[in-house]
Amino acid sequence: MLKNFAMDPKPSRRRFLQGSAAAAAGLTIGFHWSAGPKVASAAAAGGGFVPNAFVRIGTDNTVTVLSKHLEMGQGVYTGLATLVAEELDADWSQVRVEGAPADASLYNNLAFGPVQGTGGSSSIANSYEQLRKAGATARALLVEAAAREWKVNRAGITVEKGVVSHASSGRSATFGELAAKATGLPVPADMPLKDPSSFTLIGTSVPRVDTRSKSNGTAQFALDVVLPGMVTAVIARPPVFGATVKSVDDAKALAIPGVVKVVRVPSGVAVVATNFWAAGKGREALAIEWDESGAEIRGTAELMAEYKALAGKPGAPARVEGDAAKALAGAAKTVTASFEFPYLAHAPMEPLDCVVRLDASGCEIWAGDQFQTIDQGNAAAAAGLKPEQVRINTLVAGGSFGRRANAASDYIVEAVHVAKALDRGTPVKLVWTREDDIRGGRYRPMYYHTLTAGLDASGKPVAWQHRIVGQSIIGGTPFAPVLIKDGVDGTSVEGASNLPYDIPNMLVDLHTTEVGVPVLWWRAVGSTHTAYSTEVFIDELASAAGKDPVEFRRALLARHPRHLGVLNLAAEKAGWGTPLPQGKARGVAVHESFSTYVAQVAEVTLQPDGSVKVDRVVCAVDCGLAINPDVIRAQMEGGIGFGLGGVMYGEVTLAKGRVEQSNFHDYRVLRIEEMPAVEVHIVPSAAAPTGVGEPGVPPIGPAVANAVFAATGRRIRNLPFTRDMNV
Fold it and tell me: Which H or E run includes 263?
């Protein structure tokens, strides 16, 4: 039951969406309700006007938009509210946003099918028409109410900034004054939408709706939730992945003041206390013997050695065009390179947390929830309930980068298991510390890439061979039957298997490794490593051909106008080709992910100690129609900072299966003084909007690496940068 598949034509992305739908369908059998009765009951309970599942208008003139997507800092509350307010002709100052409840029958992500969830930079793309229609419907009903009240023709009524007016009669009314009169009117079957030429909010940088609450502390995160009788839990998890509890002595833990219970759960041992400090001290006092017989005890050095050995053999083909081997054999020049990519943690500012209450009526959850339908199904299974007995209150989240969306619903399920062990009705807040998150989280997989290309006598690429070795983020999940085809996880090769450059003979293949380290999508998923290897390597080919990196790319992108458009814009705005002072250099990269096209030019300075400082980044983005230019700029800036920290410092290493990092002191992220000046240029477009949460991440690493080469003559092929140079 997938909808709007035309919005993303890529086979790998379609398979991902199909897999999400298939997995969710298995969790929500029998969980399909009619929207009508629920919306009507909401109207009765709220005393306002509730024309559909997404809009509520109060008698105080407030317009509340219910967001089906999680606000985790990316600005989705503002974007979705803009779509509604535009067609409603609301006064922006009166617009509010709340997280919608978990209900896939009303709030499913249209790109995912019957799944409510946020990811894949899909929020605006899948909601663009749906939320505009929600606003247009509400507007039509308010106009109808006014026409009936004033006994005038609807055609003569106008709406502007929350006021409904009829010029001929001189009558006017606010939304709030018409709210009760509009309730119960028949809903139009279909509503025409505005022509983009008449937009007043879409395309403008309206202020974010969450700025004030996040500034004054009233925004509610899961950590802020306080319920009567609530207890707090932390969990002692195994020191190596795959280990289990053999025995536990909890006597010293139970002697800690405030500790009320020690509970064995599938993921380890939970300490429950009246407060977080007591729970943490209780965890420290536990004496646990772990059974490591089935655990992953290899370190990253051993794993990488195995990956390199695998790279010497052909893998499962992901893209085959022409005959790459034959073309390589006849090439005038060949270039070969290999790349190493480490495990990466998500490391959001707010680690995982949630509140769960189990009672006779079912299960209620408070969380910055990214994957509501999956979490609803998994929580129900853990609690022994039906999915419709699980209510999720979606709060705002302090970042995620994919971590809060996983097929196992790990932190949600952990909290449910703890709640089951307590007296019914006792709310429990589960808290992961930063150390829990870094040491026991789910990581962007480690990868090894080898690339070989052949150039003809004129320097044009005639062959390209790309081999990728690494774990699948889909293997072992309910998505695997749909998303893994002929041995290829599309998320492992995206960005490489759809390389846009005009090279006649191409082979991309994949070795999927079996490792006991838990892995997960990380902001921009496969493109986090494929964009780096392909864009650094294309620069190497330009150098081998004796050609300018931008001109070299232009010649290979003639059939890809949107790639070419952002490349040209970024190069122009960065002053590509103009002289720089001694010790400075520029590098470029261009990449498409989630149907959004981004090019970046990085400007770096070689420091006296041999390190490189990133001074400036010029970014061009083509994301279709720009809903809110300021949010787009913010997401490009944030993606650049996130991606830059990842390539410069990001690395999770294991020794004998044990993670060696624990917090921001040894898992470095970019610091504020290291953030370069960023200029963002948005390509004007009338195309349907696409996502901006992730596409700013992939190009920054290769753009900086290519600038480092221009400044020093050194290629950085093993990440993070700290392995190969001072930073």
Answer: strand 259-265
Q: What is the pLDDT of residues 540-560, one digit of tens each?
A: 999 999 999 999 999 999 999
Upper half-sphere CA count for residue 379 (Cβ side, 13 Å): 31
Q: Alpha helices, DSSP H only, in 575-698?
A: 629-648
d(CA 727, CA 722): 6
Using alpha carbons, select from 522, 456, 465, 452 the residue that is nearest to residue 491: 522
Q: What does each C-alpha distance from 325 to 513, 592, 611 come to in angstroms? A: 25, 27, 39
What phi-psi label fits residue 452: left (phi over 0), alpha (psi between -120 and 50 degrees) or beta? Answer: beta
CA–CA gap between residue 694 and residue 104 (Å, rounded): 24
pTM over 0.70: yes
Pair type for strands 677-682 and 612-622: parallel
Distance CA 122, CA 21 (A): 14
Return all residues near 203 (Cβ < 8 A) that are at least 6 apart.
196, 625, 626, 627, 629
Q: For the chain, give the number of residues.
A: 727
| Distance between CA atoms of residues 490 and 694, nearest Å | 17
d(CA 727, CA 720): 10
pLDDT of residue 726: 59
Cα angle 308-311-316, degrees, rounded to a multiple of 5: 145
- Report the half-sphere exposure of 448 (CA within 13 A, side-chain side): 18
Distance (Å, whole) CA 178 – CA 77: 25
Q: Angle at which helices 549-556 and 527-545 pack, to 10 degrees?
A: 110
In the structure, how many helices (H) and strands (E) does the chain have? Answer: 21, 29
> CA-CA-CA-CA torsion for 149, 152, 158, 159, nearest 10 degrees?
10
The Cα–Cα gap between 680 and 658 comes to 41
What b/e sequence results for 472-495 when a residue is b if at least 16 CB atoms lie within 10 Å of its CB, and e otherwise?
A: bbbbebbbeebbbeeebbbbbbbb
3-class secondary-structure state, position 684 = coil
- Please state, as a whole number, how many other Cβ atoms lie within 10 Å of the Cβ of residue 98: 14
Tens digit of each residue's pLDDT (9 = 90 or more) over 689-727: 999 999 999 999 999 999 999 999 999 999 999 987 755
Phi, psi values for residue 145, rounded to 5°: -65, -40
Q: 463: part of which helix (H) or strand (E)?
A: strand 461-471
d(CA 538, CA 532): 10
How far apart, in whole angstroms, are the C-alpha atoms of residue 557 and residue 554?
Answer: 5
Give dist(CA 14, CA 459) in Å, integer. 36
Residues 6+ apart with CB under 8 A from 376: 27, 28, 102, 104, 387, 390, 392
Which two tokens mark 392? 């999720």
- CA atoms 592, 596, 597, 601: torsion sign: negative
Largest interatomic CA distance in the chain: 83
Question: Collapsing DSSP states into helix, strand and coil, what is residue 406?
Answer: coil
Question: pLDDT digit string (tens) for 355-383?
Answer: 999 999 999 999 999 999 999 999 999 99
Give CA–CA dist 109/527, Å, rounded: 22
The kind and range of the H/E element at 268 are strand 268-273
- Which residues have CB under 8 Å from 384's CB, separation 6+? none
Look up tokens 């007296």; give the residue: 423
> 419-463, pLDDT tens digit by residue?
999 999 999 999 999 999 999 889 999 999 999 999 999 999 999
What's the pLDDT tens digit per position in 263-297? 999 999 999 999 999 999 999 999 999 999 999 99
Cβ–Cβ < 8 Å for 253, 271:
yes
For residue 76, which of 49, 107, 43 has the smallest C-alpha distance?
Answer: 107
Phi, psi of 687 (to 5 degrees): -70, 160
CA neighbor of 127 nearest in space, from 219, 211, 53: 53
For helices 700-712 and 629-648, the axis angle rounded to 10 degrees is: 60
DSSP tag of 688: P
